[in-house]
Amino acid sequence: MEIIAWFIAALVLAGLELAVGEFTLLMLGGGALAASGTALLGAPLWAQVLVFSLVSLALLFFVKPFLRRRMQVPLALDTSPAALVGHAAEVIEPVTAKTGQVRLDGSIWSAAAADPHASYRAGEHVTVVRIDGPTAIVWKED
């Protein structure tokens, strides 16, 4: 009879997990399933409760964090020009406060220096500080 009780507890906990969605009840359900297996082997009630406790704790502390990391929704791929801020670019035509070109992420962009008194020669590496329409505003650390 204990076998059926533990098995039903495992099913109920797994079913409730569908409503909650944080894996805690699922881990407890795993412990109840292990206790059901222990009861099937003919172990006394104290051993079944001990197996339930140990397996549930092990699942909560070792399996649950792994599952949470795996199930987190990845960030959406940002393909907007704003995603290029912070990227390195190579100057291919001299960049001044008003004109210039850089190679950024494999494509050629119009560029302007963030500092109105700065100019960058071809071949120098700069960092994109913002995107202003079709123009990359760049800066070079000295």
TrEMBL record:
This is NfeD family protein. It is a multi-pass membrane protein. The keyword NAD does not apply. Pfam families: NfeD. Keywords: Membrane, Transmembrane, Transmembrane helix. Residues 83-140 form the NfeD-like C-terminal domain. The chain crosses the membrane at residues 44-63. PANTHER family: INNER MEMBRANE PROTEIN YBBJ. GO terms for cellular component: plasma membrane. InterPro entries: Membrane_assoc_protease (IPR052165), NA-bd_OB-fold (IPR012340), NfeD-like_C (IPR002810). It is found in: Membrane.
